[in-house]
Each structure stands twice: as C-alpha cells, then as structure tokens.
Amino acid sequence: MSANTVRLEMALLSALYNLARIEWGTCTHNPVEHVRKPQVSSGRTRRLTSVEERCIGRALRARNDELAAIFTLAIETAMRQGEILSLRWEHVDLHLGIAHLPLTKNGTSRDVPLSFKARQALRDFAGPLSGPVFNYTSSGFKSAWRGIVLALGIEDLHFHDLRHEAVSRLFELGTLNVMEVAAISGHKSLNMLKRYTHLRATQLVSKLDARRRQAKKLAAMFIPYPAEFCENDGTVAVRFADLEHLTVPATTREEALRNASEDLLRIQARAVCAGKRLPPPGPVMVNDSRRFLIRPL
C-alpha cells in the first residue's frame, strides 16, 4: 500500500479510538497517537500534453459522444470522475452555464461554472429535462478509459490527472485568483489546492519578463512553443508538435527558424483576434537535442 493509504487508515483507527475514549468511555488512551506515520508523498505531477489531448479526444469521439463529453468536462471544469458521472439534467443550466453538485466528496454542495467548451459538449447530446446526464457507471467508465489509454500507448496517465491539469490551466489563465479557483475545484484546503497545481515553466517565462500591466497581458498571449527540425531533399522546415503546423521550407536552418518565429506570431495573433485559446505548449526537457523553443517576438 502507498504511504498515503497507510496514513488514511491510521487516521481512521485514531478517530475510532478517540470516539471510544471520549464518547463511550470504553478505553483510556489512543495507541495510534504513539505510532510513527509514513511521510506524506509529494503527489503526482503528471500534466496532459496537447498531443495526448488531441489523440485521446479523437479516440473517444470515435467511440461515442458520451465519452468525449466526459473527457471535455474533466479538463474544463476540474470536476472529479464521480461528480461528472453523477450529473443530472435537472441540475445543469446551460443558459446560465452552471452545473450544480448536490453532494461532493467534501460533504457539501457546489456550483461549478461551465466554460464554452463544456457547455458545447453537453449541448451536443442534450437529453431530457431530468435524469442522469451520463449512462456510464464508475467501473464501466474506468474500463473504457483504461482501454483507450492502453490502445494509444500513453503511459502513466490516470483520469484523476485531468483534475490536476484543469486546476493548473485555471491558474495559467491569469484571470482567476486563488479563492476563485478553489471555488471552482471545490478544495477546502489551500495546501491541497497547491498539490493539485503544476504550472508549466514555459507559461511563466513571459510573466517574469513583463514590466507593465498591459505588456504583461499581451506577452502572456505570445508565448514560446516547442518545435523540431524537419529536413527533406535539401530543404529545412520547423514543425510545432502542439499546433500541427509546418513552416514554409527554407534552405538553411537559420532561415527556417526565422520563418517559424513569424508563423508562430501570425498563428497566435489570429487566435487573439478570434478570441480562441491555443493548446498549451508541451514540455521541453533539459538537454533535449531534438526540441527547442521558438519565440514569436
């Protein structure tokens, strides 16, 4: 068992002994208090890459719309798997953009704001005025998710990692404060919220360099993206793995890099004008000889 499981079971035993000691008077002390507990684990830091997101999204849509909607809601709302599967149509207001959760893991109710993508995913297969939104049981969905991930060859990705991903993306928006993110995710403890937040370094580069408030907002829209060279028949091009875009071929690597920078700036400027959000840049490992960061500015 993991260290966290041991801590949880010891906490349960401790609570039982305290109940027997204080409420029932059937014992004189709590022996669990004198047992050393294992250290708290650092928690998972797995982030979903944009390539994985596109592959999983396509595979789930090919399977059925219900699986695709569950996947979209997990990323867009930071809801737990059980909260998504327990949604009922009478608790979903697509006009207001709110999903009401009468009972959550914390024992309280919560209203979850739905983004445009989340509302669209629910509209695509809108059902009756009442009743469950999804027909999947917990075990049935786990089986379907596990099969899709294995078929795609994606390693070490749990469905609960999507909640970590969603919380991190909410912070990366730069428009929500800590309390607003906690209200969306339902975290009662800021320490637990911190454990669920794993910001990408590439998302923070522009924020560190920005001086003025307006420049900071603009710089956050034009961030570096990882890319790699594609050489063929004496020509060189640059491919953005996260954007599915290949730059105009050039004769030299220097020219290809200039073209890539201009293309990235053009792509991001068009997205800003259209009010669209581009996929987040994927990770770049230190000393990675294949990938490098392209700056649009």
Q: Kindly state the number of beta strands.
A: 7
Number of helices: 12
How much of the sequence lies in strands comes to 5-15%
Largest sheet: 4 strands, antiparallel
CATH topology of the largest domain: hpI Integrase, Chain A
How many structural domains in the coordinates?
3
**Structural class category:** alpha+beta
Widest beta sheet: strand line-up:
6-5-4-7
The CATH class label of the largest domain is Mainly Alpha
Radius of gyration over C-alpha positions, nearest whole angstrom:
23 Å
- The CATH architecture of the largest domain is Orthogonal Bundle
Q: Quick one: overall form?
A: globular
The helicity comes to 40-55%
Overall pLDDT level? 86
List low-pLDDT spans: none
N→C terminal distance:
50 Å
Q: What's the CATH H-level superfamily name of the largest domain?
A: Intergrase catalytic core
